[in-house]
Every structure is written in structure tokens, then in C-alpha cells.
């Protein structure tokens, strides 16, 4: 492309537009080169083009605080969908949430419990049903592991999280997630239990949470209770989503 004639004629200003002899369109598609880093983009500061180096994965392009240039911003953390239903913040000697009608508003419940075991006992878990009764005569079932050993147990009084194995005198962390809409008389979810010496996880079910017909769907669980004979410094929270 020409930049003007020879002799004493001066060089005309060079632009890229559709006027003849003024450069035509600048071919950006895999042709024009520039001294930019891989993935960079450009913007103007009002006087010249500037380079904005590519950000981190998941970053968002935003306008800076001065409103003068674009910049990359770390993605905001996802807002929590969990709502606190109840918690025990004071050190206690039991982990029993009682029954909460607010649980009916959520499709999933999460129960977190932390305590210090003061004797060598196993860990048993029980549910409260929609009639606010603690279920001690239904069919609890667990498929899980504890201490690296896989097991399945069925019990009428409660779910045996450690398969009847004594946990010793140590710190314990239990988490249970239940899908709080049941069909065909089954309430199921998952659990994990971590102790100082071992731990495990698995699926947990109760096949007798009354007041719902076969094939129907309704709230099933309103609370939780952990039994481990003796415990101290118990803290628990109950969340819904």
C-alpha cells in the first residue's frame, strides 16, 4: 500500500478506512502482528493503545474504580444456598436438635455435630419425623465404611454410624445430609464421621418415616439426635436448602 508520492511531496497521514490510498481495512484475522502477550486485549487511555494482559481462569472483566479502564477481577464466591435453622453454640453434653417444623420448608437438610467422646462407645444416629417423634422403632439402614472396613447394617433403634465399633476417647466430627422429600416411604441421604483414630462415610436410609403414602412426596425429617453414651463440648448446627 502506498504512503504518498516521491520527490518533495510529504507523506500523508495514514489511516485505515475506505478512502483510496489510505490503507483500507486492517486485517486483524491471523495476519496483523503486535508486541502483545498471549491472550492480551487492548484498550485506549485516550492517547494511545494499552495492553491488558489476560487474567486468571474464571476472572471477570470489569471497569476499574476510576471508571477509566477495564481490568480483571476475581470471580465472586458463590452465595450459599444453605439457611441456618438452629444451632447449639454453648458447650453441651448431648447432641439433640429436637424437632423443627421449619425443616418442612427445605428439600435438603444438613446436620453437623462436633463433640469430645469421653468413653469408648459407638455412634448412633436417630431422626425426628413429621409428627415430632424420635424414630426408635423403624428400619434404619447404612451402607458405608468405617476404619477402612466396608459394612452394611440394619437396626430398628438408630443408624450405627461406626457399625457398632467403639470410637475411644477422642474428638468426633459427624455430618449428615438428608434429602427431605421422600417417596414410597424412604428417606435417604449420606453421612460422614471422622474421629481422631479413624473415619468413614456412606449412605443412610430410614424406611418407616410415617404419614406419607406410597409414591407420594412430603417432608420426612424434622431433626436429629446423636447417641454416644457420654460426650462433652458438643456443638451442632442444622441447615436447610
Question: Please, how many helices?
Answer: 0
Q: What string gives the helices and strands in order? A: EEEEEEEEEEEEEEEEEE
Total domain count: 2
Quick one: CATH class of the largest domain? Mainly Beta
How are the SSEs ordered, and which strands pair?
Blueprint: E1 41-44, E2 49-52, E3 60-63, E4 70-73, E5 83-92, E6 95-96, E7 108-117, E8 124-128, E9 140-146, E10 149-155, E11 159-160, E12 171-179, E13 181-182, E14 187-195, E15 199-206, E16 218-219, E17 223-227, E18 231-240
Antiparallel strand pairs: 1-2, 3-4, 5-18, 6-17, 7-12, 7-18, 8-11, 8-17, 9-10, 9-15, 12-14, 13-16, 14-15
Model description:
This protein has 241 residues and is mainly beta. The protein folds into two domains: 14-77, no CATH class; 83-240, Jelly Rolls. 0% of the residues lie in helices and 43% in strands. It contains no helices and 18 strands. The protein has strands spanning 41-44, 49-52, 60-63, 70-73, 83-92, 95-96, 108-117, 124-128, 140-146, 149-155, 159-160, 171-179, 181-182, 187-195, 199-206, 218-219, 223-227, 231-240. The strands form five sheets. Strands 5-18-7-12-14-15-9-10 form an eight-stranded antiparallel beta sheet, with no helix packed on it. The protein has a four-stranded antiparallel beta sheet with strand order 6-17-8-11, with no helix packed on it. Strand 3 and strand 4 form a beta hairpin. 23% of the residues are buried. The model has no long low-confidence stretch (mean pLDDT 84).
Amino acid at each position: 500500500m502506498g504512503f504518498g508520492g516521491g520527490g518533495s511531496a510529504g507523506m500523508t497521514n495514514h489511516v485505515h478506512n475506505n478512502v483510496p490510498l489510505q490503507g483500507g481495512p486492517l486485517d486483524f484475522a491471523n495476519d496483523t502482528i503486535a508486541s502483545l502477550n498471549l491472550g492480551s486485549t487492548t484498550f485506549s487511555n485516550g492517547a494511545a493503545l494499552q495492553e491488558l494482559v489476560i487474567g486468571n481462569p474464571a476472572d471477570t472483566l470489569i471497569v476499574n474504580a476510576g471508571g477509566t479502564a477495564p481490568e480483571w477481577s476475581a470471580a465472586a464466591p458463590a452465595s450459599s444456598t444453605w439457611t441456618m435453622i438452629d444451632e447449639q453454640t454453648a458447650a453441651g453434653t448431648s447432641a439433640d436438635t429436637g424437632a423443627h417444623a421449619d425443616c418442612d420448608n427445605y428439600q435438603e437438610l444438613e446436620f453437623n455435630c462436633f463433640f469430645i467422646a469421653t468413653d469408648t462407645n459407638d455412634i448412633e444416629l436417630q431422626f425426628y419425623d413429621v409428627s415430632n417423634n424420635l424414630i426408635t422403632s423403624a428400619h434404619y439402614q447404612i451402607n458405608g465404611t468405617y476404619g477402612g472396613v466396608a459394612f452394611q447394617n440394619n437396626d430398628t433403634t438408630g443408624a450405627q454410624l461406626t457399625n457398632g465399633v467403639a470410637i475411644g476417647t477422642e474428638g468426633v466430627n459427624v455430618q449428615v445430609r438428608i434429602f427431605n422429600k421422600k417417596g414410597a416411604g424412604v428417606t435417604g441421604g449420606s453421612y460422614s464421621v471422622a474421629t481422631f483414630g479413624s473415619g468413614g462415610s456412606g449412605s443412610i436410609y430410614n424406611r418407616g418415616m410415617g404419614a406419607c403414602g406410597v409414591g407420594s412426596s412430603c417432608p420426612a425429617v424434622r431433626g436429629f439426635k446423636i447417641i454416644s453414651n457420654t460426650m462433652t463440648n458438643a456443638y451442632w448446627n442444622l441447615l436447610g436448602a
